[in-house]
């Protein structure tokens, strides 16, 4: 727990956007966005390819400037909140010959200078061991990262991202190309981080089903429009049909959300052209 604890964190939103807009040239991805994300909230960003999900994260990181409005992350301007942010980038596998062992990768997240002085070597080692254990990666601590499976690598990225006790954990499609078991393990780790340390989680994903048990609210982006609310409020036939500007049907099947009838151009690239399921069982 950070100094000040949950009570102090609760006083200010982890992320605050006011009249925020993001446009590239003539194309506006979203505009008029007012949003407070609470400490400890699990906030999902959903939408079809090209709707602006990754750009939303980049705006919070300060990599892409808002075209209108203001943003604050952990009470600071985007780009000034570095130490308060944990970031899990979109997954790319490490090359087989990457000269880093699993524990080295995690240590990269610990070795910062957030306390003003560099941590004593032994303290760094202890923290790295602790993080490896936390994500279930102790057994392969000394294995070169390029030899690990996608799921194993992703656990390490989570460990690296949470190493600095971030107030805001930004996750860009962290479950992509993981099997169901690893999807559950990785999303469970991220959920634990927000429960135990109060990190606000901003989780970009195409598929809500693997995180449905955890999500408090979603921002659904489509075709320059958006909607914010609980999954029950947003993932409905009427809301998604309005967002897409064409009839879309949302149904619940065995506790999972299935969306049928998305326009061709917005269908997930590696799924069938006419039938989009948020996730396959
Ligand atoms: N720096 C940039 N300059 C111009 N256009 C950009 C820039 N970054 C992103 N775009 C465009 O903005 C749109 C949204 O991109 P973004 O990557 O945010 O979408 P996304 O919802 O994350 O998509 P995907 O699901 O495919 O990852 C795309 O059409 C993209 O080409």
TrEMBL record:
SMART domains: AAA (SM00382). Residues 15-248 form the ABC transporter domain. This is ABC transporter ATP-binding protein. InterPro entries: AAA+_ATPase, ABC_transporter-like_ATP-bd, ABC_transporter-like_CS, Metal_Ion_Import_ABC, P-loop_NTPase. It comes from Sinomonas atrocyanea. Pfam families: ABC_tran. It comes from the Bacteria. Keywords: ATP-binding, Nucleotide-binding, Transport. GO terms for molecular function: ATP binding; ATP hydrolysis activity.
